[in-house]
Specification:
- Helices cover 20% and strands 38% of the residues.
- The chain is of the alpha+beta class.
- It has one domain (7-159).
- A nine-stranded antiparallel beta sheet has the order 1-2-3-4-5-6-7-8-9.
- The N and C termini lie far apart (51 Å).
Length: 166
């Protein structure tokens, strides 16, 4: 077996492997929660919640998503996975424990895993240039968001609307 010639290649491989392992563990928690008919679970500093677009039905995985919130120095790192297949839908950070104020870089994914959009949230609203892509990964026209043009009480719930469109 050949070893990577550059330390950054090895570090990248370790980070990717660790991320995939964490995603697998998260999705396994969803299966446990469904089996026990639980909608919320806390393990250490990680919160697992089954959430849905409107009314999640724990008997139908296509209506639910798993939201995983981990406490970090920056706030709450959140990943949302589909109930069927455990595919990553959204990744981003919220500044509050209630997960209502999005802050920082967010990435949304198409059902096939390709990135759908990525950009910044500032104090709960989209801000600046958002890169968008079609399901095959081809770049679409960027969208530019001016947070000063939105009403002050405008709040987006990314985990429920998936693409956070105002």
């Amino acid at each position: 077996m050949q070893h990577p010639s550059h330390p950054s290649v090895l570090l990248t491989a370790i980070l990717v492997t660790t991320a995939l392992h964490a995603q697998h563990d998260d999705v396994n928690k969803m299966a446990e929660m469904l089996a026990r008919e639980e909608t919320s679970l806390t393990v250490g500093r990680v919160r697992y919640d089954l959430v849905g677009m409107d009314h999640p039905n724990i008997e139908d995985p296509t209506t639910i998503f798993l939201r995983v919130a981990r406490r970090t120095a920056e706030g709450w790192s959140v990943h949302v996975y589909t109930g069927e297949g455990g595919h990553l839908v959204m990744a981003g950070t919220f500044s509050d424990e209630a997960l209502t104020v999005a802050e920082g870089t967010f990435t949304f994914h198409h059902p096939n895993g390709e990135v759908e959009s990525t950009g910044l949230f500032r104090n709960g609203v989209k801000s600046g240039v958002w890169k968008r892509f079609d399901p095959q990964g081809k770049a679409l026209a960027d969208r530019v968001y001016d947070p000063t043009a939105l009403p002050p009480d405008h709040m987006l719930e990314c985990w429920s609307t998936l693409s956070c469109k105002p």
